[in-house]
Known about the structure:
With 140 residues, the chain is mainly α. Helix content is 59%, strand content 0%. It has helices at residues 2-16, 22-42, 47-66, 101-126. The longest helix is centred in the last third of the chain and has 26 residues, at 101-126. The radius of gyration is 18 Å and the shape is globular. It starts with a helix and ends in a 14-residue tail after the last helix. The model has no long low-confidence stretch (mean pLDDT 76).
Amino acid sequence: MFVFAGLAVRGIMNDWCPKQDALLITVVSAGITWAMIAWTSQTSASAAAAGIAVGVGCFAHYIGDAITEQGCPILWPVPIMGKTWYPVAPPKIMRMKTGGVVEMAIVGPVVTILSVWLGLAALQATGALPFLDWLDLLPI
């Protein structure tokens, strides 16, 4: 959790300040890790559930990177045809351009809303967020 939190904080900070402070990243990552440990120990959520969520997030991130024009070196560092940086991607016709108007105005907001909604619904279904019981996120 600490490593993944550190990578996330580093990635977010990269957009805001190019000169990254390793101490700040470490402190924020430790705080996130502590908060997750405290949360999983006080609710019905388990560390395994947090691990599964991280794994699903990583897989979704790989797929999202793979459908871009550049592809994604998912199998790195496994050598494929003598190269270790071989992008795995669908055919060019199925790839999308990143940073365009469609992505920023439509795809980004829709994916963000769906991610938050599904994440909260999953946490509510497991009983990890008891204060959201009044809100029926998945009417099934």
